[in-house]
Design brief:
It contains five helices and no strands. With 110 residues, it is an all-alpha fold. It has a domain of 72 residues: 434 Repressor (Amino-terminal Domain) (Orthogonal Bundle), CATH 1.10.260.40.
Length: 110
C-alpha cells in the first residue's frame, strides 16, 4: 500500500476548533442552547468559540471531547495549531539571536 505524506499549504491558517464545532452542529439535531446545556457552558462562551473569538481551553476541550467525540488532546492540538500559526506571523522575533552552534540541541517529543 502506498503511503502519501499530507501536505498542507503553510500560508493557510489551520482551522479553529470553533469552525469544526460549527460544522458538527449542522448535522446534530440540537439547538445551540441545548448544546450549551449539555456542555455545561454559557451561550456566550459557545458563541464566542463558534465565532473564533475565544480559544478552546483544556476544560472546554474535555467537555467537547465527551459530547462530540475525539480526544481532549485532539481538540487542544487544533487550538494549538491555530494559535501557533497566528503567533508565527505576529510575534516580532527580529531582535532574538539564535544560540551559538555547538550547544546541546533541544529535542522535542514527537
Amino acid at each position: 500500500m502506498a503511503v502519501y505524506k499530507a501536505i498542507r499549504n503553510p500560508n493557510r491558517c489551520p482551522s479553529h476548533p470553533g469552525a469544526l464545532i460549527a460544522d458538527i452542529l449542522t448535522d446534530v439535531d440540537k439547538s445551540k442552547v441545548e448544546i450549551t446545556k449539555l456542555l455545561g457552558i454559557s451561550r456566550q462562551q459557545l458563541y464566542d468559540i463558534l465565532a473564533e473569538r475565544k480559544p478552546v481551553s483544556p476544560q472546554i476541550a474535555v467537555r467537547i471531547a465527551k459530547l462530540f467525540g475525539g480526544s481532549t488532546e485532539s481538540w487542544l492540538r487544533l487550538q494549538a495549531a491555530h494559535d501557533a500559526w497566528h503567533a508565527e506571523r505576529s510575534v516580532d522575533v527580529s531582535k532574538i539571536k539564535p544560540l551559538p552552534k555547538g550547544l546541546p540541541e533541544i529535542k522535542t517529543p514527537i
